[in-house]
Design goal:
The structure is a homotetramer of 305-residue chains. Chain A is α/β, with parallel strands linked by helices. Helices cover 25% and strands 21% of the residues of chain A. In chain A, the strands form five sheets. Chain A has a nine-stranded mixed sheet, with helices on both faces. Chain A has a two-stranded antiparallel sheet with strand order 2-3. In chain A, strands 5-6 form a two-stranded antiparallel ribbon. In chain A, 56% of the residues are buried. Chains A and B meet through α2, β1, β2, β3 and β7 of A and α2, β1, β2, β3 and β7 of B.
Chain lengths: 305, 305, 305, 305
């Protein structure tokens, strides 16, 4: 059994926050963050990854059942039309985040203290009517780029990581080598630690005990110019840091780097298909709903092979 | 000024409903309808349309303002987190159809009387908990195919069609010729009549007076094996038929053909970009939210050039 | 152990529906039903029941937890105001009926086939925008009358009735005698069978097996000119009748008699206070929210002694 | 035309906040505030005011139409039941405050800076799940007391007060004299300035320009031991004070006095009936929904004469 993860002191996070900070990198008004890495040329190259025509959703079904990990479930209601209706209509209501919904984060969704991406302040950005900038609407033209699967469970030789583990830069390197793929500027990475397998075997994840992305792995993403992070692990719980870093990966990724985060993907079918096709990369397409001021959006990302 | 459209008698619709009916075509249990036209090979070919890497959303912003054409607007609410919040979260609630929201229809969304696609009956398909089959979830792996713009306003030599006009098969033929493109099996077509230009000049559309897709154009789509219809016109209003055909295009498209409908797209920017690039086709990508039992889904379709 | 209830044939219900029918009794346009029994004089008399000044809610707390008997729970959401808020605000969403919410029914809430109170038809009354008449708004000036507790568990000498039992006219007579009270025109009755005690001992009620009001007890209410029925039992389950009488008590009470129904009261504290004060009657006050077209309303009925 | 109101300096409000503060008056744990004035004896006396049996709602209809003064309207949705439904059901969603909904405030709804009633702090009281104390649930047994109408428009000899006016202690005194009534401990007062008449003549109120309750009138309410304030005017707008007193009447009433506030009543019918019956007092009954943690509740208050 591997030793549990160990965290660097909070000062290391402060240094990282400064070092990885993309403020000003794409201009003082930039709201796109790491989406800037996805050039038109990158999109053309990504399209060429569609070789078999296989398509696969990486989203979970919207979950309407209340549980410990889904305290405010999606509500789906059929509506009355007439005694002799000509069709069926319905309504949908959902919270944009949480641990049950596959969703994209707006860059201003999480702060580090008052700090928001590109030198902004939360007190100005967050208003009762929605985010005044860095909202989800800035991502309206969608994300179309190369996706790369990084199978950490496989490189560790385990079916799944236990919740006291972390994902380090070295794990990401090893996962690249295993799949003979190299993460490049503008890629979307999908980090897999076997969570769905673990839940199938051991029951629903305890949200207070979660595998975490370790600080040096965040730096790795910065150096590789990753455009989108997704994975079945995000912030470590329990959290060893102060409230400024209550969810330290979200805080550094969003507020310093402007790194786009795709939370709560369904990776098990993706892992299977990658193995079946013996591939580690694919075309990723997704687009948020056009919610002005929104802090995020439910999405259904599609992988094409 | 062209003469107003004239409608065939209702018996013609009954005949069309039988003639264009895809029941049994893809098996007795099929729930995908014309998505069956989109083969893996079609997807590979569609990907090759990405030549410049330009990406464009074809959705409207979610509209939170109540109006005659948006009586039940989207609700977007920021949520309270704490006195010293670490981020911003929000909730979203919306009706799935209407004239303000860019959305995909589930195939069982509209009936012809009791008839639902592939020989099913509404009384069985529509339940208080959602559609028992042909719901939006069957489209979960998304739509990735060639999109073709058919600019009817241009072939008519008008900035926009007036609301008493119809779009005929001959218009679709003419639009193909104008753009030197031919609609093929599995394509998604986007029929443009200049609605947004008309609204900019004359104010919001009167929902009781709408340009309509004429019956012979529906037959055209069947013959060409169109996979997805979208456009700034759908069913003609006022409706000349009985309640069985209250929205006759939706009824025949969904309940007979299983034709996928993308309602309320934003076509003006698409028309502009097609003109700029001198292209009539592009890669279309979109994916509905995974709503079990859902009658439709808000989407943000992306065109890539 | 008493023998389980036995139901009369469905023809008896048809006869009752005709016999107890108040259509036309208060004019062809009446929408108030048995609220007509509550005269101004009745209100004055009811006010005189306030002798100790004790006040007691008969409602349950709104229940935000999903469960078998509460599949669509109330949603209560705190809203974001500002980074330095001057107060707290929130939102509430709820379904108007079900087995978890204390609520008043609109008279047109339930039909017998197509029949709605006072000769109306459901196809006309129920519209997508709400009930066109006999909605909850007609009860807007509230209910202020004498309440009478009828403790059926006590007259049966049991802590609670088992779910295969029924409440008969003879039980109501016996409960009156036990408390030396006589139900009169315009009264609101509260029938107690010990449900909350049973649930405390045996767990949540199985909604498919419920104590029921028997047909002869409905006739009793008609003869006594009861204005409001409330109780911890309503319709018997499993239901022995056809869909026209799927919930036969609701159907006859609402659609024939126009009898006002207060569903899902919290009777345990009321029973205790009645015993403490040695009283069987009290002043009942409640008023629905003013929902135009509404099929019901959450309420918080108050008993005053 | 009377001179516009003049406001005392903010220090006067600080002094008032201390002077009128009921912290500790009813114990360190009290959450009921001025409801403590309504004794059992008071309820018995109030019941005796029911002499004619006339009942009248003082609520507005729930307003589902979006407008400047109702930006987030109530949503009322009919729900699908079945192709042959046995009844009609619906859902309701609403924000608890605003200027369109008749509602009761929870005592912790508004702060003065961080100060909440009875020495509490907002950072502790307001949680993501609701108010931890002084929520609306503490008012669950309802309000049953004497209501007194104070017609300020009449004593000023005007059909309505213009929005630059204030209501002073002297106005309240004059209104008592006019109606030969004296406000006593535990009463609910209804201050009428003719707003609905003004709106009928001049259009919807500009929410930035509102008649206000003046500081000396708040002191009057404290001295008279008013239990419930209601009226067609509340806080003056524009507000002359700092954010601590953004809505100074709410801040002092709720956070210092624990004075119960019934916002947005419909007073016009009440004024008419009082005149018709030549009465200035009546029995007031109302009860909030039992919302644990709620910051308020929609209510339908009923006046009985």
């Amino acid at each position: 059994m591997p030793a549990p993860r160990t965290f660097p002191p909070e000062e290391t996070l402060d240094k990282l926050f400064a070092e990885l900070n993309n403020a000003g990198r794409w201009g003082p008004d930039d709201e796109l963050g790491t989406l800037n890495y996805i050039s038109a040329k990158k999109r053309v190259a990504a399209a060429s990854l569609v070789r078999t025509g296989r398509a696969l959703s990486i989203a979970r079904d919207l979950n309407t059942t209340q549980s410990a990990s889904n305290p405010s479930p999606v509500r789906h209601t059929m509506c009355y039309q007439a005694h002799e209706p000509i069709g069926a209509v319905d309504e949908l209501a959902l919270g944009m985040h949480g641990f049950a919904l596959t969703h994209l984060d707006a860059i201003a969704h999480v702060y580090r203290g008052q700090d928001v991406y590109n030198g902004r302040k939360a007190g100005v950005v967050a208003t009762p009517g929605g985010l005044a900038c860095c909202d989800i609407l800035v991502q309206k033209d969608g994300i179309f780029t190369r996706g790369v699967l990084l199978n950490i469970a496989a490189v560790r030789g385990l079916p799944w990581l236990s919740p006291d583990q972390g994902v380090y830069a070295a794990d990401l390197d090893a996962a690249e080598r295993r799949q003979s793929v190299r993460v490049e500027s503008g890629d979307a990475i999908f980090v897999y630690t076997g969570l769905q397998k673990r839940e199938a075997a051991e029951g629903p994840e305890n949200l207070g005990q979660r595998v975490g992305i370790m600080p040096d792995a965040i730096k790795w993403m910065h150096e590789r110019e990753v455009a989108v992070y997704s994975g079945d692990c995000v912030d470590a719980f329990p959290n060893p840091y102060s409230p400024r870093y209550a969810i330290y990966f979200h805080a550094i990724a969003l507020a310093a780097m402007g790194l786009i985060l795709l939370d709560i993907p369904a990776l098990e079918p993706l892992v299977k298909l990658c193995e079946e096709l013996n591939r580690g990369d694919f075309l990723l397409t997704m687009a948020p709903l056009r919610i002005k001021g929104g802090t995020g959006s439910p999405v259904n990302p599609i992988a094409l092979f």
